[in-house]
Each structure stands twice: as structure tokens, then as C-alpha cells.
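From the pipeline queue, job 12 of 40. The input is one protein chain; the requested action is below.

Action: predict structure.
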Amino acid sequence: MFRQLITVATTLILLPWQAPACATPAAGDEGARDAATSIGALGSQYQRLETQLQKHRVLAAAGGWPEVPEGATIRPDAEDPRLATLVRRLLVSGDISDADMPVSTSEYNETLQNAVRRFQSRHGLEPDALVGRATLRALNVTIQQRIDQIRVNLERLRWHPDTGSQDLILVNIPAFKAYVIRNGEIVWTTNVIVGDSENKTPVLQSTLKAVVFNPTWTVPHSIASKELLPKIKQDPSFFSRGNYNLFDRSGDPVDPSSVDWSTVEQRTFPFTLVQQPGPANQMGQVKFMMPNDYSVCMHDTPAKSLFASATRAFSHGCIRIEEPLGLAEVVLRGQNWTRQQVDRQIKSQETRSVVLAEALPVHIAYWTAEVDDLGVMHFYEDIYGWDATVLERLDKPFQSDHHDQPSASY
């Protein structure tokens, strides 16, 4: 079973990247469950996507779904002439069933609100039942566009080799989710923050080697020179307030007050900044080390408020974990760590690196379409715009004299 999962989870195709500093069954609230919770339970994501591809093609042949006209946000209990069209749209995609059809479509009632929430949940939107711009945009993606999105992700799955591993951490970038899988089953999940459009999180395969409690942060030179230098020049208390130490190119400590910062320029920035452990540390309370060519890691963050957003592409490329202490507990459980021990280690304020007795594979994937264990189709926004390149190549005429693998455009 898990051999099928890893076919989905693993990739050797990496992207050029800047280093960091249709729903069936219709109708139940269970349709809003995390898509990836399915993978370990039922196996082949590829087969599920193929099934959904055929279902969507049948829908397309029958005329697809109607377009809901643009307009003001439709709010609960409001009356709106577009509601009849909205009901037809949600009926075609399985977000509402014939049995749940409201008697009247003149009022945005609770039944229809629940259907909209189901639609929003499986499209990576805030399930607030407000039919605003983002929800209308997702509703009005055409059936052919969704077919193409499924085709793109089927192609991505074809690229993945089968490693046979039954234990791993899986991150799906567009879903903003991370999962811990043990013995082929998902045992833990959390929300994540990924790289923004300028600092994309790469698709990669690595292994988690160590968990670092109360970590320091050596600021990448690009971040220090581009983003922090202006703050240093404006705020004399920058170093003390942020708990930063300053070092020269030889690694020797430098007193920040001895530097004439007005003469320091971005292109010739000669220092290294190291932030010490504490509440302001950008790594938060714990960091997860996974060697890779992109200097990407998973870590905590002091900016907890960012997790309130449904779309969470805010980082410089690293993966910020909403529940990092829970992840530490799960990955160290095999070494007899408990949550109480994790908490005590954090409270000690001591920087400590705990090497895993057995390295845990980490797979960072980019799936904008996947199917959960209830057969519910989930679509996510193509936050990095990578789907178009894959689709363009899929639609090119076959060249019999070309024997290349798909190029590294994920």
C-alpha cells in the first residue's frame, strides 16, 4: 500500500530556485477533510486522479457547470438573483446533492452556506461561506481548466520513483500542509507556511537528520544585506532588541556600535549576523535539519498570526511549522521523547541538537490537485505558476525522435 504512496510522494526533479535565508461523494461535512489524509489509507493517488479525470470529462461532455456572474459578495441570509445559478454550479460539482437542494433559491440559507463551505474547503479557501472574489474565481474556473489541472498532476506523479519507504514527512506546497507518515499511515498533520513568489520553496527529496531546540539563526547574506541593513541604519537598538551578534568575515565578533553604518553598502556588506535563541528568533523554538542543496529547513516562527491566512506563501523558502513542538514530539517518539521532555528542553533555553537515531525521509511535493480517502477532489491554487509549463509540454505534439524525460519545470 505505501509503495503506491511513495510513488506519489517522491521526486528527483528539482527546480532552479534562490536559496532562502470534483467532489464525490457530494454532501457531507466530511468532504472538507484534508486531502492528504487519504493517501496512506487507500493507496494509489494516481488511480484516484485518473478516476476523477474520467468523471470530469463526463461532466464536460454534458456541458460542464454554469458560470456564476460577478457582483457583490453574497453573504449569509442575503437575497441575490445569482443564487439559482450558484445552486446549479454546486450541484454539478457534487458540493450539494439533490436531496439537499433548498426548497427556495431566493435566500442564501444554511443548506447552501454549508455547500459553499464544502466547496471552499476543498479549494484551499477560507470556509467562511462568503461568496466573494476568491470564491467566485474558483467557482468560475471552467471544467476544461480543471481537467487540465488533473492532467498536469497526473504527469507529475509519473515522474516519481518508488522507494518503498513506509516512514516519511510529506509537505504539499500548494496545500500549505505537512504530514508525518508512519508504517504507511498518516499519524500527524499541521499547517505550514511556504516560500513567497520571489523565494519559492523547492520540490526536493531529503532526510530529517536532527531536531535543534532553542536554535540560533545565522542570517543568510542576502537577507542581512538587503533586508536587515536598512533596519540597522534606522534603529540603533536593532542588535540588542533582536538579540543579534555581529561577526566579521574572519568569524571574529564585532561591536555593532563601533561600525559607521552610514558607510556600509548592500553590495559590499562585510558582516555575518547571528541571532541568539529567544522569543524574537526567526527560527522560533525548534528547527528541523534536512541537508539539501537549497539550504531549506523546517522551523518554528514567532509570527504565529500568519497561520490565520488560508493562503500562506510568506517565507524566504523555508517551511514554517504551525505546531513545531508537536512535530518534534512525533519524530523523536522512537527515541522515547515525550511532549513533557520537549517542553522542558524548550524551557531550559539551552541550544541542543538531537540527532535522529534513524534519519526520516522528507519529500516536498507540488500538487495542485489530489483526491482524499472519501473520493473528494481537492484543487489548490497554482501559487508559483508552474502548472502552465507542464500543460504546455503535455499539449505539444509527440516527437518520436525525442527520448528525454520531462524537463525540470515542476
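Job complete. Residues 1-21+160-216+277-405 form a domain with the L,D-transpeptidase catalytic domain-like fold (CATH 2.40.440.10).
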